[in-house]
Every structure is written in C-alpha cells, then in structure tokens.
Design goal:
With about 325 residues, this protein is mainly beta. The chain is about 10% helix and about 25% strand.
Length: about 325
C-alpha cells in the first residue's frame, strides 16, 4: 500500500504520511462487500474492483476496495497489459492491490481515464502498470504545478502586473501541445465569456491519443476539466473557423474546396460533438466562414484563427496571455 501511494510522491507535487486514525486523514483506504448499500456500489459481478467515494466537506475521500474478490497482495511484477476485449471490464479474480491503488489514487488527485499505453489511468481493469507514466505525472503537474521550467510542449497562462511584466497565473500545462504537432487556440465554445483552450492534433503528431481536446478553467485560472480527446475529427494543419448557431451551439469548421466545408456542432459548447448537417445555420465568430442559410456553402472564405495570444480565462474582462515555453 505504502509503495503504491509513494509512486505518486515522485511527482514533486504530493506526498503521503500514514496516520494512526482517520480523524485528520485526507484519504482513507477501506474494504467493502457488495452487500453494503451505502458508499461504493460494486454490483453483482467481479468486474468492479474499487471506487473513489468523495466525502462531505471536511470528510476524507475514500478509496473503497471490493472485499468479495481474491486480491493479490504480493510484490508488484511486470505482467503485460491486458488488451481491450469485450466485455470492457473482464472478470479478474486476482486483481493486484498495488496497481489498483495507484490507479485509484490518480483519480483522487484529479486524473480521469485515458487510453494511452503504459498509463496507470487506463480504464481497463487488470492493467498492471506499476508506476505513473510521464504523461500521468504531467497531468498531476498541470493541476498542482512543479518547479521545472516550461518546454515547447508546455503551455503557460500568465498575467501582467502594473509594469506590464508577465507572471505565471496558474500551473504550467505540461506536455499537452508539442510545438510542431498540436495547435492551440483560444475559444469560447459555451458563450459564457470565460474562454477555453482548444488543442487540435496535426498530421505531424506522433501521439494518436491527443486528437481534439478542450480545456476548461475555473475562476482562479486553474485547469478544471479536459473534454475529449476526439481523434481524427479535424485536420490540425488546416485553417479553422469558430461560429455559433442561433440556438447557441458552437461550430468548428474547416474548408473543403473553398466554398463547401466540414464542421462539428457542439451542443451548448460541450461534448458530444455531432457532424454539421444541411439546414443548420451559423454565424462566424472567428476565422471567417459562416453559413447563414444552412446550404453548405460558406458565406466567406475560412482564413483561420490565430494560435495562442490573449485569453480571458476567468471572464473578468482582463486578458491573460497564453504562450509556449522554450527549450
């Protein structure tokens, strides 16, 4: 247990101290049977190994393990990853405690499921990756920060002081936007005056898991949620236009032959995205384009929107600046 928790402590961001009781604990690891109605819900199969249960304000978060299973409590080993099969969560009678604790602690720290090979956050039960991968640690650093300088794969959100000098306003977003393979745009998909960051993977990317990703932030300019990735939906090398329908849905469009276009519609500015269809009218907000009569012919050429630049991430009317780091 301690070894599993300490695997996250190498991220220079967090550390864990074992306590004698739960009064002052932030995280509690416990066991629960399927017959218990409160707390975690494991259902009637062996496919759900553990769950994270958030407590009320002032109460610890609980990692709840399914006590109905035969757990492997031995030393971690390097078994190959389980490939995706149906059903999505095959029954595993001997789950390894170490890998499950590492995975669930990733959720406690704020990470969601990913599909990247080698990540401890893959959703497929039985994946026995032993330690957080570089991408897992980059996710934690993006949430909590660390002391390393920004590289060209990182994005910085900065604010200006009274002298006009830039200072970091939030933790550096790590490894999300390699300079020559991922484009980064400032958008306001949901029209709430709080701008988001849209990442679009180009053909030069060697990481097929990135795709199209939308980053949202809270009022403190801290990363709140990532929506996606959606792989292969847009061409990261082609010019983009951002628009909005009469009902307030966001439109992301690219030209096909100068007049016709391909577009995605984001209901209320959120996922899931659906392909644009004839009859859906929209007006351009950035980058040209628009289709006011919904006939599939652009009102004007798509000239594209600029990458990076000014962003009002918290909706206060004062611009922050988003930029890449340097090697």
């Amino acid at each position: 247990m301690k070894t599993a928790l300490n695997s996250w402590a190498t991220s220079e961001t967090c550390r864990f101290t074992e306590l004698d009781g739960i009064t002052d604990a932030d995280v509690v690891v416990t066991w629960q049977s399927r017959s218990v109605d409160k707390g975690a819900r494991f259902g009637s199969t062996e496919s759900i190994l553990a769950q994270v249960v958030k407590g009320e304000v002032g109460s610890p978060t609980r990692i709840v393990l399914n006590s109905a299973l035969q757990w492997n409590l031995g030393e971690p080993d390097n078994k190959p990853e389980v490939s995706a099969t149906k059903p999505r969560f095959p029954e595993l009678p001997n789950p390894h405690l170490h890998s499950v604790i590492v995975h669930e602690m990733g959720h406690v720290l704020g990470l969601g499921h990913v599909s990247k090979s080698g990540s401890v956050m893959r959703p497929l039960q039985g994946n026995e990756a032993l330690n957080p991968s570089s991408s897992d640690l980059a996710g934690v650093h993006s949430l909590y920060g660390n002391n390393q300088p920004a590289s060209t794969s990182d994005l910085m959100i900065s604010c200006r002081d009274l002298k006009g000098e830039l200072h970091l306003a939030a933790p550096i977003l790590r490894a999300l936007a390699p300079k020559n393979s991922v484009a980064a745009y400032v958008v306001d998909f949901d029209g709430d005056q709080k701008e988001e960051i849209l990442l679009v993977q180009s053909a030069a990317s060697t990481d097929p898991g990135s795709g199209l990703l939308l980053l949202t932030f809270d009022e403190r300019s801290l990363l709140k949620k990532t929506l996606g990735p959606l792989s292969g939906l847009m061409d990261g090398c082609a010019a983009l236009a951002i628009g909005r329908t009469s009902s307030g849905d966001a439109v992301l469009a690219q030209s096909l032959d100068g007049e016709k276009y391909h577009a995605l519609v984001f209901k209320a500015g959120r996922l899931p995205a659906i392909p644009w269809s004839v009859g859906v009218t929209w007006e351009s907000l950035k980058g040209g384009g628009g289709d006011r009569d919904g006939d599939g012919i652009l009102d004007s050429p798509i000239i594209g929107i600029e990458q990076l630049g000014n962003i009002d991430i918290d909706g206060d009317g004062i611009f922050e600046v988003i930029s890449r780091g340097t090697d």
